[in-house]
Amino acid sequence: MPERTLSDEGEFERVAVAFARVLRGTGVDVPVGRAVTYARALALTGVDRSGAVYWAGRTTLLGRPEDIPAYDRAFDAFWRRRFDVTIERSAPVELTIVLDTEEEAPAGESEEPQEAEGPTLVVRWSRQEVLRHKDFSAYTHAEFEEARRLMNDLRLHGAMRRSRRRRPSRKTEGRPDLRRTVRRSLRSGGEPIRRAFSEAGERPRRIVLICDVSGSMEPYSRALVRFLHAAVVGRGRIEAFALGTRLTRLTRELSSRDPDAALARAARSVPDWSGGTRLGEGLRAFNDQWGVRGMARGSVVVILSDGWDRGDPALLAEQMQRLQRVAYRTVWVNPLKASPGYAPLAAGMAAALPYVDEFVEGHSLDSLQKLAEVISR
User: Fold this and answer.
1) pLDDT in tens, 199-249
2) pLDDT band per the 50, 70, 90 thresholds, residue 184
3) Angstrom distances, CA of residue 182 to CA of 159, 166, 192
4) Burial class of 190 by CB neighbour count within 10 A (0 to 12, 13 to 18, 19+)
5) Residues 167 and 212 in one domain
6) What was the pLDDT predicted at 364?
7) pLDDT for residue 126
8) Domain interval for residue 182
9) Residues 304-332: what's their mean pLDDT?
10) So what's the pLDDT on residue 122?
C-alpha cells in the first residue's frame, strides 16, 4: 500500500470522497452519509496501516454483503494501485417516450403533437402504481413524500379477540341481560315477556412494531419508520419500538400527526440510529421490561429487520422462543426477502426463523399493504 501522509481533516474528507466515487463506479450504492462516516473513521485510524483502512471502509461504506467483491476491487485499485478500474460509458441514444395518463389536455393544448425524430416508445403509467411496487432503497426525496401520503391510507387492525365486555345479542339464548330485560318489561306492565340476552364482545388485538434502525437497514429504515408513524396515528392499539444496539420506545414520539415533527422527535430519541445491531439483547430488553409483563401477551408482534446481527445467535433464538410463547402471532418483515435468490442464511435470521409464524417482505408499499392483511388475520 503506498504511503499517504494526511495532515488535516479536510484531506481525509477529500480522500474519502474520492474513494467513494471509485466505489460508486463499480456499481456500489454509497450514500453521502456513509462517505462522511468513512472520513471520520480515517481521521481516527490514519492511513498508515492497510488493514485498518480496509476495515474502516468496509464497515462504514457497505450496506450489503453482496458488495464485498466490488469493494475489494475498488480498494486494490485506489489504495494499493494494483490495477485500474475502468467505467465503460455507452453512447447515449435519444429515445422519445410518450406517456398516456388518461388525463384531459389543458385548454389550448389540444393540437396534434409533432412527430419526434428517432425511436418513440408509447407507454401507459400511473405514478401511484409505480411507487407501490418500487423498492424503497431506490426512492428519491419526492417519491418519499408521495409515499408518505399513500402510507396515511394504511390502517392496521389486529386480529379480533374475545373481550370481557359483553354486548347485546339478538339470539334468544346465552347469558340473560337483566338490565335490558327490566327496561323492556316496563312496556308490558312489569312482566318480562321479552327477555334480552348478551354475548361476549370482540376487540382487536394489540400490535407491537419493532423496527431495526441499524446501518444495514439504512436504505429501508426511513420508509419503515414512516410506516410506524402512520400506524401509530391511526388510533389503534399499537406500540412502536426502534432497535439497534439498544431498544427505544417510540410510541409517544410518533403520536404527533405532523410526520416531520414526529420523525424528528423519534430521531432525537434514538442514539444508535444507523449503528450496529444486537437483536438478541434488544428483544431480551423488550421481553423483560414490556413483552412478558403484558404488552406482548395475546398481541401480534411484528419485527422489521434484515436479520443481520452482531450479537449471539443463541441469545436471539432464546428470546424469540420466549416471545412466541406469549404472543398471539410473531411476524418477521425482511426487506431483503424480495431480492432474487435470497435465502435466510444470516446467523440472526436463521436463528429467529424457527420461532416466526409469518415471514414476509417489506421493501415496497405493496408489501406493506400485504403486511397489513397478514396482521389482521
Assistant:
1) 888 888 999 999 999 988 998 998 999 999 999 998 778 999 999 999 999
2) confident
3) 35, 17, 7
4) exposed
5) no
6) 93
7) 58
8) 162-203
9) 94
10) 55
Q: Interior CA angle at 60 toward 54 and 65, to 5°?
A: 80
Contact between 41 and 54 under an 8 Å Cβ cutoff? The reply is no
Count of domains in the chain?
A: 3
- The answer as to whether 91 is a domain residue is no
Please tell me whether residues 73 and 47 are part of one structural domain: yes
Taking the C-alpha atoms of residue 276 and residue 243, their distance in angstroms, rounded to an integer, is 10
Q: What local confidence, expressed as pLDDT, does residue 114 receive?
A: 57
Question: From CA 347, how far away is CA 352, in angstroms rounded?
Answer: 9
pLDDT band at residue 79 under the 50/70/90 scheme: confident
Q: Is 91 exposed, middle or buried (0-12, 13-18, 19+ CB in 10 A)?
A: exposed
The verdict on 222 and 347 lying in the same domain is yes
What predicted TM-score, i.e. pTM, was given to this entire model? 0.65
What pLDDT shows up at residue 47? 82
Residue whose grid cell is 490514519:
46
| Per-residue H/E/C for the chain | CCCCCCCCHHHHHHHHHHHHHHHHHCCCCCCHHHHHHHHHHHHHHCCCCHHHHHHHHHHHHCCCHHHHHHHHHHHHHHCCCCCCCCCCCCCCCCCEEEEECCCCCCCCCCCCCCCCCCCEEEEECCHHHHHHHCCHHHCCHHHHHHHHHHHCCCCCCCCEEEEEEEEEECCCCCEECHHHHHHHHHHHCCCCCCCCEEEEEEEECCEEEEEECCHHHHHHHHHHHHHHHHHHCCCCCEEEEEECCCEEECCCHHHCCCHHHHHHHHHHHCCCCCCCCCHHHHHHHHHHHHHHHHHCCCCEEEEECCCCCCCCHHHHHHHHHHHHHHCCEEEEEEHHHHCCCCCCCCHHHHHHHHHCCEEEECCCHHHHHHHHHHHHC
Q: Which of 78, 109, 124 is the last residue of a domain?
A: 78
